[in-house]
Amino acid sequence: MKNKFDFTKLKEQTASLASKATDKANEVAQNLKEKGSQAMEQVDLDKVKESASNIASKASDKASEVTKSITDKGTQMMEQTVQALDANGDGKLDIEDVITLSLKTDQVRIDRSAFFKKEFQNFCPKEQILKAIDTNPSQANISPEIIDRVANEVIKAERLKVTGISAALCTPGGVAMAATIPADLVQYYGHMLRIAQKLLYLYGFPEIDILENEPLDSATMNLITLSLGAMYAVAGTDSAIKACANALSRGVSKQLMKKALTKNVIYQCVKSVSKWFGVNMTKGIFTKGIGKAIPVVGGVIGGSVSYIGFTKCCENFKKTVSETTLANPNIHLNAKEQEIFDASFAIAAE
Question: Is the pLDDT assigned to residue 117 strictly greater than 80?
Answer without folding.
Answer: yes
